[in-house]
Amino acid sequence: MSRSTQQPRARRLPRDVRERQILDAAVQVFSQHGFHAASMDEVADVAGVSKPMVYTYLGSKEDLFSECIRREAKRLIDAVTEGVSTDDELAPDMLLWLGLRSFFRYVGSNRDSWTVLHRQALSVGGTFADEISEMRTRSIELVASVVVSTGTKQGIGEQAEKSGAGLAAALVGAAESLADWWIDHPDVEEGTLASWLMNLVWLGFGDLVQGAVWRPR
Amino acid sequence: MSRSTQQPRARRLPRDVRERQILDAAVQVFSQHGFHAASMDEVADVAGVSKPMVYTYLGSKEDLFSECIRREAKRLIDAVTEGVSTDDELAPDMLLWLGLRSFFRYVGSNRDSWTVLHRQALSVGGTFADEISEMRTRSIELVASVVVSTGTKQGIGEQAEKSGAGLAAALVGAAESLADWWIDHPDVEEGTLASWLMNLVWLGFGDLVQGAVWRPR
DNA sequence: GCGTAAACTTACTGGCAAGTAGATTCTGCC
DNA sequence: GGCAGAATCTACTTGCCAGTAAGTTTACGC
Fold first, then answer.
1. A-proximal residues of B, 134-193, CB under 8 Å
2. For the range B79-85, what are the long-range contacts, defined as Cβ-Cβ under 8 Å and sequence gap of 24 or more?
3. Which of A19, A94, B25, B82 is most buried, by the most CB atoms less than 10 A from its CB?
4. Which CATH class is domain B69-209?
């Protein structure tokens, strides 16, 4: 039961540092077990802290999870935002390309974060589902705006607006799914993943924009 | 006395009928709360039966969940299989088209089933995750075989094989994600969803097959 | 009719995990 | 040095829920 043997009794740390450690531990534990199966004892243990600390600093289990979601969502969004920000104005396809690369890069080096956001948060329902689906909706709208603006610029406005949101949802889902697939096939670079999607999606868009349509025979 | 009293009290029913009722209830409850948050009491309650029945017929909570997954996965696969089976040999794009339509049709009229399979099963981990990811892998491989065979027939074999699995994963994910999006935008017909995806994906494939490539500038 | 097995119930146990009370250090500051 | 208060712990209480023991009722074959 004695924890780490040779530490001179973990020093006292200022609150914000401990909070960060606890949140890190929580993300890891939640990503491994999911919200319900995760225990506060384990979170405290992984954080190297006793349970009352967790409650004192982060509140209830729901509060803690909520805070994880919020922090990780912000990190992801910041990573992507930072990845697409440049001085020049970007063509829409380059925008998408940079966004996808940033996304995959983030997922690649923050698996736990991604797992919590993508798999665990959705399955809990209630408050969290709202927060997550809001983030998701924002991503989709962002992508949709690229799609729609490209479409309208080319003069197929009505159709683009109608299907834009749906296509964007599909694209976001494709990226998410590819990220999951990546976990089982790590011997691929993130640029490759992004370029697969670009090839699939942008070439398809290109045809649509030029008026090509697939229809069943 | 004799059976003159007609209580609305559920009559005694043969085992297989009850088992079906219990499984139906379980799918509903699991889809609403997820594995851990769902209680066996509620399952029994929704099924209109007492708890020991559930244990007698279906075993432990894990067994029950497992059986739900198995049954619903089979129903989904059967629905899609049935949707693409015809007498004639189908062109690959028509195969994909029919498959997508069947998939969306199933999801549309079996929301609970889809939720359990897609959202809940993944988040539990362990045995279930294996079963689910096996089903998923099979779907992806199926799609991949269509993609790859189309590619090789057109003479870009090497590249098609390399990216085929990834593209298939992306496509499957796009379909799943579009299915989720549909839940929030139900005023779209399932054929429309399928045709959006076909337009996106098949036109993109078409270009790839003809050697077109998008690359960053 | 009547006995037997299958269908079904009530009412419990046991354990795990969320959340807390209250005592106990340490640390910065005068 | 000593004290105020923040940081931290041990050791509980509480409630829920998976799983079960043991009994009761009904269908149905003969």
1. 140, 163, 165-167, 169-178, 180-181, 185, 188, 193
2. B79/B103, B79/B105, B79/B106, B80/B106
3. B25
4. mainly alpha
